[in-house]
Design brief:
The chain is built from 4 helices and no strands. By secondary structure, the protein is mostly helical.
């Protein structure tokens, strides 16, 4: 969970790191950083906006894939055998 109040305390250059490709931040944090920068008056070109939205979508897809993999791993460890220990 990301708190907007925490991100608002960061400087604009620090928030720019949230918008870079290959960062380690979750999609919600990237979206909030983008919104905060816009609130501060930063203007983005349409190309930059598209790249940022693509970055956010890619992170959401990665997060969903990881969740599915974890669920499948748990399913693999479940047995229907009532005699199993």
């Amino acid at each position: 969970m990301v708190k907007k109040s925490v991100l608002e305390k960061l400087s604009s250059p620090e928030l720019d790191n949230y918008l870079k490709e290959g960062n380690r931040f979750i999609p919600e944090a990237v979206q909030m950083a983008f919104d905060i920068l816009q609130e501060r008056g930063r203007t983005f070109s349409e190309q930059e906006k598209a790249q940022i939205q693509q970055l956010i979508q890619d992170k959401k897809d990665q997060q969903e894939l990881k969740l599915q993999e974890e669920q499948e791993m748990w399913k693999d460890n479940v047995t229907e055998d009532p005699k199993a220990i």
